[in-house]
Amino acid sequence: MSYFKTLNTTVQQVIESSKKRFNFTNLNYLPRWLILLFDTTICFIALFLTDFIVSNVSGSFFNIFSFNRYDAIIIAVNVFFFLVLRTYAGLIRHSTFIDAVKFFLASSATFISVLLLNYGLQYLIGKEITTLAKLVIYFSISFSLLFLFRVLVKQAYEAFFTGSSDLVETALIYGDGTNAIAIANALKSERPLRFKLVGFVNSDKRNQSKQILGLPILSSDRSITILMRAIGAKALILADKNLSRENKVALVEECLEHNLKTYRAPLVANLKDDENASKQIKNIQIEDLLERDPILLDNKLITKDLFQKTVIVTGGAGSIGSEIVRQVANYNVKKVIIIDQAETPLYQIQNEIKQNFPDLDFDPIITDVTNYDKLNKIFEQYQPNIIYHAAAYKHVPLMEDNPSEAIFVNVMGTKNIADLALKYDVDKFVMVSTDKAVNPSNVMGASKRIAEMYVQALHNFSKQSPNFKTNFITTRFGNVLGSNGSVVPLFRKQIEKGGPLTVTHPDIIRYFMTIPEACQLVLEAAAMGNGGEIYIFDMGKPVKIIDLAVKIIKLSGYVPYEDIKIKITGLRPGEKLYEELLNDKTVTLPTYHEKIMIAEVEQSDYHKLNEEISILIEYANQSNNHKIVSQMKVIVPEFKSMNSKFEALDIPKITKKV
User: Fold this and answer.
1) CA distance linking residue 543 with residue 534, whole number of Å
2) What is the C-alpha radius of gyration for the chain, rounded to an integer number of angstroms?
3) What is the 3-state secondary structure (H, E, C) of 24-66?
4) The model scores a pTM over 0.70
5) Bridge partner residues of 564 (DSSP)
6) Tell me, what DSSP letter sits at residue 427?
């Protein structure tokens, strides 16, 4: 009973589909009734061809109008099984092996049913519907034509609607594993097409004569760019999940050199069902080209260090501070307090934490690190265990024009947080510093060096008394890719506007890290630190900024110096050609982590340094820039201004005459 009810529902769906108006201007899909009509017509054609073949074989006369009620029974049975198996329900342009199986079952069921009906009628009334030979021929022809119809429509659709479009990129898939095949299958089946795939690349020469999804497998023993040009590919999609970082960088570099695009495909397990596969194929980013192995952390040490601790992150809405918050949130902390003076970024990180870490107990607080009284109330209320001090002014040209603000935030702000950490028996104070503090050539770098000196001097002073337990730790690293105001986001904005990209000097170089990478090392250094250390990080190879600009232009799909110009603007006030993580007098000590070293620097007397900083803050309150910078040079003798109006304040070396 339920079977006939289902069949009745199916018939009603076909009837309802036939009532819908068919628009020939939109061939994205055909109504069900029309597909069923096509299939029925194919059955009539198959029956006509069957009669023609049988009459020629038997030598009898072929009558084109010989269609009778027995032929109608065969057609009716065939259509009945079309309805039962819903062969009309799929989109023809997306026909698969499953559709072929359905037609085979429908044709087989028709063959068996008519055959049984044939024997039944012959037994009862001595007549038969058709001969066995005619039935076998009809079965073969009808199934073949139904299947061929689907194949031809699918091929015609792909050729007509996706054949030649300027928006479709001809691409080669790197890899031939399950991930690469699944990505290729998804890209081939979606409409509209973004990529026209022309082949796979495989390292196994034995697979060269084979195909996947009708596409050739090419050997990677030749240059990838030669392969791409030979097959007409304009883009390379990296879909091999086992591809090493070194090989990926080499492939991307080679493609960039020949102005060929590169993309990275996600793992199939990470594909979003509600988004087209092609939209999840992302451009290779400059971060992907860092020639550095993934950082391996001692998670047990960090977990123990942060377990059920109350953590304060100053500058917690900035690029570094917010990433520290995200990473700390992954550990079993008791509470996180995020301090920042920027309202909108603080609101954004608040919403992000609520969404991604709903169980995290955290409080965002708007305040300035220069406000000692407000900070004192925060420390008194929360009684923190660990402080990550990331609040700072960091833009070199701005601080060169506003030395007093650099002193207030970078020096006095650090002093406020460090003094309160000692007052409230905080377990650890971790300061985030910069390579610009080494042999500083600008106000910003010098202000961070003074902050480093104070933190280290305070630690040494506090250890003279058993009443203090706070350990003061400093971490120092170079430029961070993607941080607020850094060169990479600036280049991307300039590319969006059509250029030019501005580089201050053709020979300027910098060390770079990704934000997560730098923050991971901060947590690791903090966990291993015993206090008083200045940890420096392995920044890898220095990068020439003009080379970085060229790569970003190419990764964006443009030709450097043609589509996007590069303009040399001259060194900015206080800017060096290169940064250093150590000065000439510094000795480094290794740690158990190969990427983290300890810098042994000269120690400062706490009382003397405290007096000199008090004078410096007084000059900052007076907004007397010359006195501020002069006092900074007294505190940090190696501070030599470069390309700055403060160069005149440097004390010239007196050469003795022999």
Assistant:
1) 24
2) 37
3) CCCCCCCCHHHHHHHHHHHHHHHHHHHHHHHHHHHCCCCCCCC
4) no
5) 560
6) S
How far, CA to CA in Å, does 461 sit from each of 379, 426, 529? 21, 16, 17
User: Which residue is associated with the tokens 């007294």?
Assistant: 634
**Mean pLDDT, range 301-314, rounded to an integer:** 93
| Active site members | 436
Q: Where are the alpha helices (DSSP H) in 168-282?
A: 178-189, 224-231, 245-257
Lowest mean pLDDT among 26-35, 237-246, 402-411, 522-531: 26-35
Contacts of 206 (CB under 8 A, 6+ apart): none
Q: Which helix (H) or strand (E) holds 603?
A: none
Domains, the chain, in order of start with CATH, read 2-162 (no CATH), 169-284 (3.40.50.720), 306-484+515-543+587-634 (3.40.50.720)
CA–CA distance, 184 with 165 (Å, rounded to integer): 19
- Give the integer Cα–Cα distance in Å for 220 and 544: 30
233-275 pLDDT per residue, tens: 888 888 887 777 778 888 888 888 888 888 887 776 556 654 5
Residue with tokens 């570094």: 320
> Which tokens is 142 given?
């009808």
In terms of Cα–Cα distance, which of 457, 172, 480, 184 is closest to 319?
Answer: 480
The residues with which 389 forms a beta bridge, in sequence order, are 314, 431
Residue located via tokens 């020469």: 205
How distant, in Å, are the alpha carbons of 443, 615, 647 from that of 629? 7, 12, 10
Strands 362-366 and 386-389 turn out to be unpaired
Asked if the peptide bond before residue 192 counts as cis, ω within 30 degrees of 0, the response is: yes
Under DSSP, is residue 564 helix (H, G, I), strand (E, B) or coil? Answer: strand
- Measure Cα distances from 202 to 181, 225, 251 in Å: 12, 14, 14
Around Cβ 484, how many Cβ atoms within 10 Å?
16
**H-helix or E-strand spanning residue 149:** helix 132-162
Is the per-residue pLDDT at 386 higher than 50? yes
